[in-house]
Amino acid sequence: VKMPFAEEYKKFAPNPDGFPALVEKLIALEKEPMSWESDVKALKTPVLIITGDADVATLEHSVAFFRLVGGGVMGDMGNPLPESRLAVLPATSHTAVINQPDLLLAFIEPFLKGETPKGFFEQ
């Protein structure tokens, strides 16, 4: 079976032959319960959650995790914006996100620099 990510994995991974082991680990991970709420809530660093509007992870799930890291509060009326951010990419599935590097960079770069993306809140 040809896997779309196998060739890309070989280009960038420290161990190009490790793709089958990665797939095995991902399959095992899918079988484990995903109750990470307490771990996520304990994070002390700002988090950028990126999801697609057609993602396997539901929007409700992404919003719930965003709230766990301090997001989802109003950043108006003199209140600062939350340090964590949520980006919902339009017309994007879980795997299609990797084919949109320019769109991703527009969210990731300002987040890493601690900046608000240009044009979002500027007059």
What's the SSE blueprint?
Blueprint: H1 6-12, H2 19-30, H3 37-41, E1 48-52, H4 59-68, E2 85-89, H5 101-113
Parallel strand pairs: 1-2
Compose a concise summary of this entry.
The protein is mainly alpha-helical and 123 residues long.
Can you offer a commentary on this structure?
It contains five helices and two strands. With 123 residues, it is mostly helical. The protein has two domains: 1-32, no CATH class; 36-113, Rossmann fold. The mean pLDDT is 85.
Q: How many strands in all?
A: 2
Number of helices: 5
**CATH domain class of the largest domain:** Alpha Beta
* Radius of gyration based on Cα positions: 17 Å
CATH topology of the largest domain: Rossmann fold
What labels would you give this structure?
mainly alpha, Rossmann fold, two-stranded parallel sheet, 2 strands, 8% strand
